[in-house]
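Can anyone check this?
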Amino acid sequence: MRQAQPLLIRQASCSRRGIIDILIEDGKIAAVAEQLPEIGNIAQAGGGAIIPGLHDHHIHLLATAARNLSLDLDCVRSEHALSEVLSRTVASKKPAEWTRGVNLDVAALHSIDRVWLDRITPDHPVRLKDRTGALWILNTLALDQLSGLTLPDGFESDTSGKLTGRVWREDSFLGEHIPSLTPCLFALSAELATYGVTGVTDASVTTRQDTADLLANARRRGEFKQRLHLMSSDALDTPDDQTFSISSIKIILDDRNLPSLEAVVEKIQFARASNRSVAVHCVTEAELALAIAAWQQAGALPGDRIEHGSIIPFEYLEIIRDLETTVVTQSGFVWSRGERYLQHVEQSSQDDLYRCKSLIDYNIGVAGSSDAPYGPLDPWVAIRTAADRTTDAGNALGTKESVTPEQALNMYLSMPEVPGGPSRTIDVGSPADLCLLRKPLDAALCDLTSENVSMTIIEGEIVFEQKTGTNQ
């Protein structure tokens, strides 16, 4: 992806330089000055802030794209409501046509299983995904698609040995054997562009070479514009045309079935042999404790990442700092799930949820991300929440962990290779991955919303431009 001709951005506000012009050629910043000669296409910034494009450091692209083709169950809070939603949905479908639901709150609807689904949807295959992404629930017709196969350990059975329909962390297996949706990456890329996002790190443990090639081809076709940085659990080959770069080896830890310390150490050693860092999924304290023990035995390296850090007790901060690991967090969950946390998490532990300020105070690198489709895709929701620590109902949660708006924004401006590191800068020779705001930065930091994004530029190409409104 390269611009056809030079692009000149006129009168942009830069925090380090004041009001400047920026010339972009061949996908890079070619010149920066108070005033540059007119050349090529001209975009008027009108004094709006120019910042590096935002990078989402933890997202699941294909799952996020598929969400738009799925039944969203986020607001369903009772079995009666779920029954009504599923009944209406399958009534409009042909026999044997699949229903795929997402964001099911299994904590509230803990009795949902194969038998329950069969009573509501006996004639249509159904699969529902828990809001955490760890669990699928399938009815009998869906399970019948897998008959004759050797099922992996994630398929839960009751005491009599009969399948319950609950399937834990078997996305790869289900993806191979159950018809999948064909998600539209173009729509997802366009939405990300409206938020000023110019790059993403896909944190899916299920990414294999064929998945990476699928994403790379989407970039080659111009279907997906953002730069791609990919995790995987196994080896990946980088394409010659650099349509994606390779990130950490992903390690999933799950309280339901924690691996041995030796197994985690072995996976870290595999990553080191591949010259890659590791990114360890740590949602609970037990998962975090196991990850830390593995790093202490195998050795941690700069670039190693704690993914989520949903619960980090205070006494772990000094240990994490000494390991020099980064925490890739999702403040957006404080907004989207905060009311549930206030209800179900003990008050003494609420300050441990999705820490920010204490991590920064301990000189621990902190990077921001969405964890979409499980968290809000809009990074400005997470940026705002990192600063105000307010739930979607307006209640405060863990306000001791509030950071300044500038610190919150900076969590999305670090390089994908160094999440939580220094913010990227707007300098000659830098990639032209930029976000133009409708307001000067000081004003935008007082009004943290994606509505302030007026233009998004990736590799010198304008991929989003907000035509309405005036700069302030």
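Reply from J.R.: I decoded it. The radius of gyration is 23 Å.
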